[in-house]
Amino acid sequence: MDTHDWLAERFEEHRTHLRAVAYRILGSTSDADDAVQEAWLRLARSDSSQVENLGGWLTTVVARVSLNMLQSRKARREDPAGSHLPEEIAGGAETAGPEHQAVLADSVGLALLVVLDTLAPAERLAFVLHDMFAMPFEEIAPIVERSPAATRQLASRARRRVQGADKAPDADLTRRREVIQAFLAASRNGDLGALVAVLDPDVVVRADHAVVRTGAEPEVRGADAVAAMFFGRARAAKLALINGITGVVWAVGGRPRVVFNFTLSGGKITAIDLLGDPGTLAQLDVVPLPA
């Protein structure tokens, strides 16, 4: 076995772990794959004979690459990962294998990733590496370019945010349901004013490839445009729990065909993701709610 093959074999031993680290930092399986691939390229170009702890070295590289990607995403003001989470968590037919399931194991659910997406990049990385992967602060500090003490504070702030979100009052969940119910009622009744009232001015609707094939636009932005899109429609859509969080489903013969995932902020709908890919829907936990 030549050096390249030996190195590739060693790298594969760590791939699942590296992908798990990248996914929790980035909240996207495709971005996680890109970060892991970049780590492999850097390893292939490096003098691996000088690396004493290959697993630790690769984890550090993936963390740095992921942090750069996260900072770039924030700088470009891209839509948060949380708005895409159901598709990312469920994956498609091509990503639903054992390795994918291992990456998404130990309850990395929608709610947690939504909270993580509200954190600053350095906070998110410090929390993920320390609290989820037990990496010492001394090793995390150089990645976020802070002292170990300051890095500990980053993780502590992130932990408080996560714990606070876990203890969100039932009233918040009730309010979410009320807003989505109001959206459905306004859509069905053709009440344009009521539709606009529940939408954030900068609301965005995104459709996955399966929904686009039915004739939907890939993306619609702005309260007026989104209200016009749903005006007089959604008659067959029903309220449902999607991975334990209130959303909407359109089902035919009892089988979900399109899931509506809502992102809310300040009592307004800021994003709606329309998910229709069969592989995605098959892996979502969809429980219809009584009218």
Structural account:
This protein is an alpha+beta fold and 291 residues long. The protein contains 14 helices and 7 strands. The protein has helices spanning 3-26, 29-45, 54-75, 85-90, 98-103, 110-116, 121-132, 137-144, 148-166, 170-189, 192-198, 209-212, 223-230, 278-283, and strands at residues 199-207, 219-221, 238-242, 245-252, 255-265, 268-275, 286-288. A 7-stranded mixed beta sheet has the order 2-1-6-5-4-3-7. α6 (110-116) crosses α9 and α7 runs antiparallel to α8 (137-144). It is elongated, with a radius of gyration of 21 Å. The termini are far apart. Residues 77-108 and 166-171 have low confidence and may be disordered.
**Strand adjacency order, main sheet:** 2-1-6-5-4-3-7
- Average pLDDT value? 81
Our count of helices gives 14
Rg over alpha carbons: 21 Å
CATH topology of the largest domain: Butyryl-CoA Dehydrogenase, subunit A, domain 3
What oligomeric state do the depicted chains represent?
single chain
> Cα distance, first to last residue?
64 Å
Based on Cα principal axes, name the global outline: elongated
| Helix content percent band | 55-70%
Kindly name the structural category: alpha+beta
Element-level helix/strand string: HHHHHHHHHHHEHEHEEEEHE
Would you state the CATH class of the largest domain? Mainly Alpha
CATH superfamily of the largest domain: PhyR, sigma-like (SL) domain
Specify the CATH architecture of the largest domain.
Up-down Bundle
DSSP, total strands: 7
